[in-house]
Amino acid sequence: MRDDRKKNFYLVSVPGHRSINLKTLAERIPSRKLSFASEADLWEWLRLEKGHVTPLGVLNDEQKDVIVVFDRALRGQQIGIHPMENTATIFLAFEDVRRLVEEHGNPVVLCDFK
Predict the structure, then answer these.
(1) At 102, is the secondary structure helix, strand, or coil?
(2) How far apart are CA 37 and CA 81, in angstroms?
(3) Of the CATH numbers 3.30.160.250, 3.10.560.10, 3.90.960.10, 1.10.10.10, which one belongs to the domain with range 2-111?
(4) Average pLDDT of the chain?
(5) On the chain, which terminus has fewer CB atoms closer than 10 Å, C or N?
(6) How many CB atoms lie within 10 A of CB 74?
(7) Could you tell me the sign of the dihedral formed by the alpha carbons of 62, 40, 88, 94, in that order?
(8) pLDDT in tens, 40-72
(9) How far is CA 81 from CA 4, 7, 85, 109, in A?
(10) What is the pTM of this model?
(11) Is residue 33 scored above 90 in pLDDT?
């Protein structure tokens, strides 16, 4: 995701059964109006291709500018994520993924998507 001025980029993770209202998300983060990042932006910021987005992608964010937003519902769960491409899935404790992102240096926001 990105704001309408392309100044802030977000990687948003929610359980697979949840949908996201971008206007509500922008209010809760808070952010300016949100939209999906382009394929070029995905590659520039995270070295990921469309369809391969994963929370682990922030490990490619050398500037540590991408803000990672996790749904609070993920706490205490085992989550399935792609290991940088969508041909495989690995299962990790949410807390381990969050810790990895935080230790890398990217900002983390927990948000209630209900």
Answers:
(1) helix
(2) 19
(3) 3.90.960.10
(4) 93
(5) C
(6) 21
(7) positive
(8) 999 999 999 988 999 999 999 999 999 999 999
(9) 27, 26, 9, 18
(10) 0.92
(11) yes
Output the six-digit token pair for 34: 């949100």
**In 3D, which of 30, 95, 104, 98 has the Cα closest to residue 64?**
104
Instruction: Determine if residue 99 is left, alpha or beta; phi over 0 gives left, psi from -120 to 50 gives alpha, anything else beta.
Output: alpha
Both tokens assigned to 96: 């381990």
Cis omega (within 30 of 0) on the bond before 30? Answer: yes
Q: Residue 38 is encoded by which pair of tokens?
A: 């382009």
